[in-house]
Amino acid sequence: MTFYRGHLLVCGGEGCTSSGCNEVHGAFREAMRKKKIEDEIKIVQTGCHGYCEKGPLVVVYPEGVMYNRVGVKDASEIVNEHLVKGKPVTRLFLTDPISVDQVPKYEELDLFRKQHRIALRNCGMMDPDSVNEYIARGGYSGLAKMLDTMQPAEVVNEIKESGLRGRGGGGFPTATKWEFCSKAKSNKKYIICNADEGDPGAFMDRSLLEGDPHSVLEGMIIAGYAIGADEGYLYIRAEYPLAIKRIRNAINQAKELGLLGENILGSGFNMELKIKEGAGAFVCGEETALIASIEGERGVPRSRPPFPAIKGLFGKPTIINNVETLANIPYIIDQGAQTFASVGTDKSKGTKVFALTGKVKNSGLVEVPMGISVREIVYEIGGGTFEGKKFKAVQTGGPSGGCLPESKLDLPIDYDSLASAGTIMGSGGLVVMDEDSCMIDVAKYFLTFTRKESCGKCTPCREGTMRLLEMLEKITAGEGEMADLDRLERLAKTIKTSALCGLGQTAPNPILSTLQYFRKEYETHIKDKKCPAGVCQALFFYRIDDHICVGCGVCIKACPTDAIEGERKQAHHLDMEKCIKCGGCVDACPFHAVIKE
Amino acid sequence: MKKLTNKDELQALRQQAQQEIAERNQNKNRIIVGMGTCGIAAGAQDVVNEILKELQRRHITNVEVVRTGCIGMCEREVLIDVVRAGEDRVTYGQVVPRDIPRIIGEHIVNGRIVEDMVVGRLTAV
């Protein structure tokens, strides 16, 4: 094999051949022969770079300098200047249409412009499997600072001053919960990380566990120290295998470094963390059900009090915090409560991570300061709804939450404002809906979910969600009557006040909020037997407009049930008896002759 | 790894880790692949395989391929970030394996950002 000092690549794609690269190739060979460097530099004919407009293209390695629009006359100059003297011929450089400055910076992107990252500070910025990278980014320094200088009561106090409230949805002040537990007398206490994220449309906990597992662990160790626990569990649903794998790896690394286990950082403080894989039942996110599940019992809730902070896992005082809450803790201890509390509103401090999804241009995970308006999230971060579609509602808080109409867009996002508007922060699902969404169908979707996930222990939830769902189904089938609306409302309110746990108590929220803000839509379904969004199958029909139809027959091929008939070049006809309303003909028709009404 | 027994040792490890990372960032080009569940579901593993193949094909040895979690733009997965030594971190979105030769050839080798695939840029740290 012959070794060359460098390579000169002349493109030989179709485009460049036509712009004369064969001649250029020859000119280079000639020029190199003259300078007697043909044994040093290898000329390679390459395929097309896909940049034919700028061809012929020549690239010189090892530097990787690219010349564009190289002519026969330029060959000797490149050889003499670049290959012999090592001075690239700047004249032939690409006038870069792609100047680096034109690429928008992250902070200029819509999705990132209004973000303020505390919980997600490391996500996407480091290798989640490397403890060293976490430490390099300031990881475990909160823990070290605490063990060195703070008493457990001071830690609780620091969290109290930060104003942190539980990010799992309820928004209960974290320090108050810790205080209960720290004051409880017991020889054994537990700390649990609730990673049983089950809301449809929410995935922030998973991303945190996968992207920054150590910050969750560090948060747990700090919490454990504050309440006096020496053992903890991470309850992660088994549907999150990658999160489990990364957490497991993180636990091993932290143990190896003496950041977890016995005598952490020589302080005498011990902490053992274990993973408990949940089977993925929504109700297991409820703390008493979660505890039952770890104990090996069936995951069903029990009535409170006693609260887990007094009597929790194996009957011992236990604190359960959500993943996002825990990820905020190391930051608060390391940076100080004031830094954290400087972000957010009076009663809701810090930031909240939302999973922004639905009919919105930029969807994804966003972390924003509390108090930002729904409008800012939907329009300035999310980029608004798709072209030509009108905004209709935004659903917050998953199946336990509610829908807010356009008139509530300027509502600031914090626990209390959302609650007063009839919805909740929840774990942070944010689903944007446009005019193509039927609000009754949306309520039906969430009710279907909660009915299936109801553990069945208490009657209001087991039977009540079933009846609610039946009534919604009746309405969407076009068989509803006005009295159903009152029945819906009454039953919903009854379930809210009588169900045993959070799942049942919040299950009617999607119905109550849609009844509050979109009552007209319910009435249209009942009185006019119409679904304005065209979602409820029983309430719309297809028709072929015989003025528009040219009889091309495309729809006939698309129809799976042979519901469309017609001669070629004659207007076709659609038989609604056979039609299953799949919409295949609508998509297929190039003339938009199939009308939905 | 040696067990850390006090705050100072952690501080020392932090400095050492920062230095290692700084050195790596100085002297090496990096390709960072988003490998949360969203990234993997969108085909990140195939993209990584193609990156490794392409680097091998071109005999490029001064590039480190590392992974990271989800940065939030799940919809634009597979996301890969290309960092040339000392330059800004450029994020490419919706990357499929066949884009890799172009990204490596243009950006890593020639330092030209593949504009039409760019999602955003992070200032060098």
TrEMBL record, chain A:
The terms under GO molecular function for this entry are: 4 iron, 4 sulfur cluster binding; FMN binding; metal ion binding; NADH dehydrogenase (ubiquinone) activity; oxidoreductase activity
**SMART domains, sorted:** NADH_4Fe-4S
User: Which branch of life, at top level?
Assistant: Bacteria
PROSITE patterns named in the record: 4FE4S_FER_1 (PS00198), 4FE4S_FER_2 (PS51379), COMPLEX1_51K_2 (PS00645)
Instruction: Please give the InterPro entries that the UniProt record associates with this protein.
Output: 4Fe4S_Fe-S-bd, 4Fe4S_Fe_S_CS, NADH-UbQ_OxRdtase_51kDa_CS, Nuo51_FMN-bd, Nuo51_FMN-bd_sf, Nuop51_4Fe4S-bd, Nuop51_4Fe4S-bd_sf, Soluble_ligand-bd
Q: What is the E.C. number? A: 1.6.99.5
The question of whether Metal-binding is a record keyword is answered with yes
Q: Which family does it belong to?
A: Belongs to the complex I 51 kDa subunit family.
The name this protein goes by in its record: NADH dehydrogenase (Quinone)
Q: Which organism is it from?
A: Dethiobacter alkaliphilus AHT 1
Automatic annotation (TrEMBL), chain B:
Q: Where does the signal peptide begin and end?
A: none
The molecular function terms of the Gene Ontology recorded here are: iron-sulfur cluster binding; metal ion binding
Give the UniProt keywords, A-Z. Iron, Iron-sulfur, Metal-binding
Top-rank taxon of the source lineage equals: Bacteria
Q: InterPro entries, per this entry?
A: Thioredoxin-like_sf
Extract the PANTHER family matched here. Answer: NADH-QUINONE OXIDOREDUCTASE SUBUNIT F
Its recorded name reads: Uncharacterized protein
